[in-house]
Amino acid sequence: MSLKAPTVPYFFLQMFNRETAIGMLRQGNTGEQIINILDMIVSDVEQTNIQDFVDHAVALNTPTLQPIAF
Q1: 26 part of a folded domain
Q2: Domain range for 23
Q3: Which of 4, 21, 52, 66 could be disulfide-bonded to 16 (CB atoms 3.0-4.6 Å)?
Q4: Whole-model pTM?
């Protein structure tokens, strides 16, 4: 089985669906406003990505307290 990377990152889909993102971008009337909206989306995605990484790292390093059989 071969895995193919999604065209839209999963973390983006968690926060914004396509219609929401397009609706936000349609509010921009100038290039500067659109860039500001994109910057806001990227900032939210970065924060979510960072938090997901931290949560995953903590989960990997949390002891299970299960005995180890030798």
Answers
A1: yes
A2: 8-40
A3: 21
A4: 0.52
